[in-house]
Amino acid sequence: MILAELLASVALTARLGPVHVDASWDDVTAALGEPREVLRNRRWPHLFGYGDLEVLVCRCRRVRLVTVQTWTETVELPTYAALFPGEPTEADVVAALDRAGCPWEPCPALTFDGQRGLRVPATSVTFVFAVPETGEPRLHAMGLPDNGHRCPKAT
Known about the structure:
This protein has about 160 residues and is an alpha+beta fold. It is built from 3 helices and 10 strands. About 30% of the residues are buried.
Protein backbone atom coordinates (compact mmCIF):
# COMPACT_ATOMS: atom_id res chain seq x y z
CA MET A 1 0.00 0.00 0.00
CA ILE A 2 1.27 3.47 -0.83
CA LEU A 3 0.79 6.47 1.46
CA ALA A 4 -1.82 8.16 -0.77
CA GLU A 5 -3.98 4.98 -0.70
CA LEU A 6 -3.68 4.67 3.07
CA LEU A 7 -4.67 8.32 3.54
CA ALA A 8 -7.62 7.88 1.16
CA SER A 9 -8.88 5.03 3.36
CA VAL A 10 -8.46 7.28 6.42
CA ALA A 11 -10.41 10.01 4.61
CA LEU A 12 -13.29 7.59 4.00
CA THR A 13 -13.54 6.45 7.63
CA ALA A 14 -11.96 9.35 9.60
CA ARG A 15 -9.97 6.66 11.45
CA LEU A 16 -6.38 5.49 11.52
CA GLY A 17 -6.65 2.22 13.40
CA PRO A 18 -7.84 3.06 16.92
CA VAL A 19 -7.23 6.80 16.42
CA HIS A 20 -10.15 9.06 15.59
CA VAL A 21 -11.75 12.23 16.91
CA ASP A 22 -13.59 11.46 20.18
CA ALA A 23 -11.59 8.26 20.77
CA SER A 24 -10.79 7.50 24.38
CA TRP A 25 -7.13 8.29 25.03
CA ASP A 26 -6.95 5.20 27.25
CA ASP A 27 -8.09 3.07 24.27
CA VAL A 28 -5.50 4.68 21.99
CA THR A 29 -2.60 4.14 24.39
CA ALA A 30 -3.76 0.58 25.12
CA ALA A 31 -3.60 -0.18 21.39
CA LEU A 32 -0.50 1.83 20.43
CA GLY A 33 1.51 2.14 23.63
CA GLU A 34 2.87 5.28 25.21
CA PRO A 35 3.46 8.16 22.78
CA ARG A 36 6.07 10.88 22.80
CA GLU A 37 4.92 14.29 23.99
CA VAL A 38 5.24 16.67 21.04
CA LEU A 39 4.80 19.90 22.98
CA ARG A 40 5.52 19.97 26.69
CA ASN A 41 2.71 21.90 28.27
CA ARG A 42 1.50 21.95 31.85
CA ARG A 43 -2.02 22.83 30.79
CA TRP A 44 -4.42 20.88 28.62
CA PRO A 45 -4.83 20.06 25.79
CA HIS A 46 -1.67 17.98 25.21
CA LEU A 47 -0.16 17.12 21.84
CA PHE A 48 1.25 13.59 21.54
CA GLY A 49 2.92 11.78 18.68
CA TYR A 50 3.44 8.32 17.27
CA GLY A 51 5.97 8.74 14.46
CA ASP A 52 4.36 11.24 12.07
CA LEU A 53 0.90 10.88 13.60
CA GLU A 54 0.05 13.69 16.01
CA VAL A 55 -2.91 13.55 18.38
CA LEU A 56 -4.32 16.45 20.41
CA VAL A 57 -5.91 15.21 23.65
CA CYS A 58 -8.32 17.14 25.87
CA ARG A 59 -8.20 17.16 29.67
CA CYS A 60 -11.18 14.74 29.62
CA ARG A 61 -8.83 12.28 27.83
CA ARG A 62 -10.68 12.32 24.51
CA VAL A 63 -8.93 12.81 21.16
CA ARG A 64 -9.77 16.25 19.78
CA LEU A 65 -7.66 16.52 16.62
CA VAL A 66 -5.58 14.12 14.51
CA THR A 67 -2.84 15.11 12.05
CA VAL A 68 -0.56 13.06 9.82
CA GLN A 69 2.55 15.03 8.91
CA THR A 70 3.66 14.07 5.39
CA TRP A 71 6.22 16.77 4.60
CA THR A 72 9.18 14.65 5.69
CA GLU A 73 11.29 12.36 3.50
CA THR A 74 9.68 9.31 5.06
CA VAL A 75 6.42 8.97 6.97
CA GLU A 76 6.10 6.62 9.95
CA LEU A 77 2.64 5.62 11.15
CA PRO A 78 1.74 3.35 14.05
CA THR A 79 0.61 -0.20 13.28
CA TYR A 80 2.41 -0.16 9.90
CA ALA A 81 5.79 -1.89 9.79
CA ALA A 82 7.07 0.01 6.74
CA LEU A 83 8.07 3.62 6.29
CA PHE A 84 6.24 5.43 3.50
CA PRO A 85 7.94 7.87 1.14
CA GLY A 86 6.78 11.33 2.17
CA GLU A 87 5.32 14.21 0.20
CA PRO A 88 2.99 12.48 -2.23
CA THR A 89 1.86 14.72 -5.07
CA GLU A 90 -1.57 16.29 -5.18
CA ALA A 91 -2.28 14.27 -8.33
CA ASP A 92 -1.44 11.00 -6.50
CA VAL A 93 -3.67 11.90 -3.53
CA VAL A 94 -6.60 12.97 -5.73
CA ALA A 95 -6.27 9.81 -7.82
CA ALA A 96 -6.23 7.66 -4.64
CA LEU A 97 -9.33 9.46 -3.31
CA ASP A 98 -11.11 8.94 -6.63
CA ARG A 99 -10.15 5.22 -6.78
CA ALA A 100 -11.43 4.78 -3.21
CA GLY A 101 -14.77 6.39 -4.16
CA CYS A 102 -14.13 9.22 -1.70
CA PRO A 103 -15.71 12.49 -2.87
CA TRP A 104 -13.63 15.60 -2.18
CA GLU A 105 -13.84 19.33 -2.83
CA PRO A 106 -11.47 22.31 -2.78
CA CYS A 107 -11.17 23.89 0.66
CA PRO A 108 -10.90 27.69 0.27
CA ALA A 109 -10.27 28.17 4.01
CA LEU A 110 -6.98 26.27 3.66
CA THR A 111 -5.96 27.77 0.32
CA PHE A 112 -3.67 30.80 0.48
CA ASP A 113 -0.03 31.91 0.06
CA GLY A 114 1.65 28.82 -1.35
CA GLN A 115 -0.73 26.20 -0.07
CA ARG A 116 -3.91 24.56 -1.29
CA GLY A 117 -6.47 22.57 0.66
CA LEU A 118 -8.89 19.78 -0.18
CA ARG A 119 -11.71 18.57 2.06
CA VAL A 120 -13.73 15.37 2.23
CA PRO A 121 -17.28 16.58 3.02
CA ALA A 122 -18.53 13.30 4.52
CA THR A 123 -15.79 13.11 7.18
CA SER A 124 -14.37 16.69 7.25
CA VAL A 125 -10.88 15.25 6.67
CA THR A 126 -8.58 17.86 5.15
CA PHE A 127 -5.47 17.64 2.99
CA VAL A 128 -3.03 20.56 2.82
CA PHE A 129 -0.60 20.78 -0.10
CA ALA A 130 2.47 22.99 -0.37
CA VAL A 131 2.40 24.65 -3.79
CA PRO A 132 5.95 25.43 -4.94
CA GLU A 133 6.87 28.09 -7.48
CA THR A 134 7.79 25.27 -9.85
CA GLY A 135 6.92 21.60 -9.75
CA GLU A 136 3.92 19.74 -8.44
CA PRO A 137 2.03 20.52 -5.25
CA ARG A 138 3.04 18.08 -2.48
CA LEU A 139 1.03 16.89 0.48
CA HIS A 140 2.18 18.60 3.65
CA ALA A 141 -0.38 17.20 6.10
CA MET A 142 -3.72 15.45 6.43
CA GLY A 143 -6.01 16.26 9.34
CA LEU A 144 -9.12 15.06 11.12
CA PRO A 145 -10.50 18.24 12.69
CA ASP A 146 -12.09 18.80 16.05
CA ASN A 147 -15.85 18.36 16.00
CA GLY A 148 -16.70 21.25 18.33
CA HIS A 149 -16.11 19.33 21.59
CA ARG A 150 -16.92 21.17 24.80
CA CYS A 151 -14.94 19.57 27.58
CA PRO A 152 -17.04 18.67 30.62
CA LYS A 153 -13.93 19.19 32.76
CA ALA A 154 -13.27 22.75 31.55
CA THR A 155 -13.06 25.29 34.31
